[in-house]
Amino acid sequence: MNRSKLLGGVALAACVALAASACSSSKTNSSSSNSPTAAVTTVPSGNTSAATGFNAAVTGIVRPTNAEGGTMTLVDRSDFDSIDPGNTYDAFSWSIIGDWARPMMTYAQQPGTAGNKVVPDLAQGPGVVSNNGLTWTYKIKPGVKYQDGSVVTSADVKYAIERSNWGQDTLVNGPAYFPQFVQDTTKYQGPYKDKNPNDGVSGITTPDAQTIVFNLTTPFSDFDYLMALPGSAPVPRQKDTGADYFKTLLSTGQYKVDNYQVGTELDLSPNPNFDPSTDPDKLHVLRASKIVIKLKQDKSTIDDTLFDGSANADLTGVGVQPATQSKILADPKLKADSDSAYANSTEYFAINTMQKPFDNVNCRQAIEWIIDKATMQTESGGPIGGGDIASTIDPPTIPGWKAGDQYITAGNKGDATQAKAALKQCQTAEPDAFNADGTMKDSFEIMTRDNSTKEATMVQTAQSNLKSIGITTTIDTKPFAQYNSQFAGNQQYAVAHKVAISFMKWGADFPSGYGFMYSLLASSAIHPSGGYNLDWYKDAAIDAGFTKALNENDPTARGADYAAIDHQALADALVVPIVWDKDLVYRPESTTNVIFSQGYGMYLFSAMGVK
Fold first, then answer.
1. DSSP element (H, E) containing 563
2. In what order do the strands lie in the sheet with 313-314?
3. Which of 178, 272, 347, 385 is least buried, going by the fewest C-beta atoms within 10 A?
4. Omega into 479 within 30° of 0, i.e. cis?
5. Distance of CA 428 to the CA centre of its chain
6. pLDDT at residue 26 above 60?
7. What is the reported pLDDT for 13?
8. Contact at 8 Å (CB) between 415 and 367?
9. 3-state secondary structure of 358
10. Tens of pLDDT along 393-451?
């Protein structure tokens, strides 16, 4: 998901353990099942199982309740890109959009690793796989209604996916995974170019009002994750107004939109046509009588609103300001009402393999060895407000993750001896790139974005590290909004300006090895401009690893496949992981049912309530 407004990273890319039985099943879902799946936590009213203390919402549920409270006020440093489920790519939007929309699948309302798993929402169950992994079939729950009382059908789901994925000439914000995998012999142009309601994607069919079938071009074992994207929430074709649908959208969640003043405020109230019997897992519970979201709030004062009680949570989701962090950590009571958890993103350097002599693996390994990650961790905000020192591209929240140990140094301060030894091997292979004293002849660029003082400081440390082993660099700071389209992700620019290293901060659209690494490492993710594979390396072993993983039905084996890809990228020295991001977030005592979702890397705002 796009965390560009939040943490300064962009994510683009992809059956999880909870849904593993569906991955190899050939059974058919029940045609009229609204039975509980026992897949999510259904908490009782009251606080009988409440977790307390620092990091309590990471490992438990803080003030769990199914009781309806009063008005919940949320604050946000920015605005929604859109409240339309088919036209949004902001992390905080995905974490709250369940209040007014029901995608086919969603993340379990559980803390810890269980929160990474997708469970049925509008769907009766996970996808049923057949045809050697090329066909996925879903049944929707019967009796689900929009706020106007009309009944949701599978045709509405089909249309929603088509508009969000094939209608990006009009809906410009959301992700578009389905066209990569779904058959489309008709080359559908999307509903805004092709006005014929009888046209559509040939690989998506609706045999009846409750069934939707996807026929794929290649096996894709992570398909349930795609069905957890907000764009799978139903939209009736006759009500769609394109980019303006957010003004009149029909809710299927427990709340409806009463008022949205762009850039100012979003107000929600209970949806009168929401039927709790269609929500047996209690994913959509009224825990507030009204929700008010105040937008574009001054980031310097948002933390104060949490402390003085005028706000119940910071919807931005990226943690408190540095000054507030110090205040919280110095006060045991404030710290007990806080959490520091993985944000599902990694800060790293990508090494440009097009740039000689960094086409040589030994030169790239020299960079791996010399980087002082301990100093950079401090510069990023320390272990609580910055993150853990990283040894892999995937953060530990990704299923199947396995720790890396290829470039471990004493105190994580870098190892000049190892770095110089690797550089010496590179010099032997590419002597024309080096001076007689072992330093590199050319000067190279380290590229970074202009949106973060912390990033700038970390890049300066990298520059100093490299100089200590004879690699001279200049720092090239570019606008965040054009970073990938025109600069770091633009092949022509990278070559012309001798870019050796590019800083990146990356968060996954969904927590799988594909969702996190495909766009960063796969050969097919290399584009002349606008891509996110900034090492520009076509690695046959990595490509084969993705193919193997996406054909793998067993989630444990699939996770191991992804871990092998991660470790292969490190062996090839394509990236230097620096820190796995963590945010220090504060939860006022007024909030209830507080869960830190590993699926979203922030509080699960659609489950949150107020006293």
1. helix 555-571
2. 255-261, 265-270, 290-294, 71-75, 313-314
3. 272
4. no
5. 42
6. no
7. 36
8. no
9. coil
10. 999 999 999 999 899 999 999 999 999 999 999 999 999 999 999 999 999 999 999 98
Contact 379, 412 (CB under 8 A): no
> CA 240, 246, 248: angle at the middle one, nearest 5?
65
The answer to whether residues 115 and 39 touch, using CB atoms and an 8 Å cutoff, is no
Burial class (CB in 10 A: 0-12, 13-18, 19+), 411: exposed
For 275-293, give one letter per residue: b (16+ CB within 10 A) or e. eeebbbbbbbbbbbebbbb
How far is residue 445's CA from residue 281's CA, in Å, rounded to a whole number?
53
**Residues 6 or more apart from 159 whose CB is under 8 A from it?**
191, 200, 234, 235, 236, 237, 240
Q: What are phi and psi of 201, to 5 degrees?
A: -75, 125
Say if residues 251 and 257 touch (Cβ distance below 8 Å): yes
Token reading at 200: 């559509």
Question: Tokens 């990471």 correspond to what residue?
Answer: 58
Rg of the chain over Cα atoms, rounded to whole angstroms, equals 24
Residue 452, CA distances (Å) to 80, 96, 380 in order = 21, 26, 10
Specify whether the CB–CB gap between 149 and 172 falls below 8 A.
Answer: no
Do 290 and 267 form a contact (C-beta atoms < 8 A)? yes
Residue with tokens 């957010």: 246
Inter-axis angle of helices 513-521 and 540-550, to 10 degrees?
150
Two structure tokens written together for 486? 């025109």
Q: Tokens standing for 443?
A: 């000067």
Q: What's 9's DSSP letter?
A: B
| CA atoms of 419 and 389, how far apart (whole Å) | 19
Q: How long is the chain?
A: 611
What percentage of the chain carries pLDDT values higher than 90? Answer: 87
- Alpha-carbon distance of 382 to 411, in angstroms, equals 14
pLDDT digits 0-9 by tens, 513-559: 999 999 999 999 999 998 899 999 999 999 999 999 999 989 999 99
